[in-house]
Amino acid sequence: MMQVENPLEEFLPVACVFDFDGVLVDSFEMHAEGWRVTFAEVLGSSLPECSESNLSGKSAQQIAQELCRLAGVPERVEEVLSYKIARLSDGTLVPPLREGAREALEWCRDAGVPFGVASNGPSAYVRSSVAAHGLEVPHILG
Q: What's the whole-model pTM score?
């Protein structure tokens, strides 16, 4: 059998690395709810008044530090952070997939393009969320 060359092969990427939060999943509301629950359960208080920028684009450590500072309990950062990370890692908090995310991963697999997911979040969170959505991702870095 004669093998036909793929005329688009020269245009295929060598590999794809997808960011997780905000690219494959729409996680802002889930993270905000996670912080609200964490404050209620760990500190017995409401999340301090803050802008959306306080809750996104930063590591969980930075967000916990800022929220605890705003709440007047900077000494509780590690306790708050540990609780939130545990909820992320145990599958309690699962963000919804963004439109086209599943198809983008499937395209990579079908085209033979190596791919993976990278995140500023904990790898256990990414792994549990990927599993909850039934996605097959060969490489995850958190």
A: 0.79
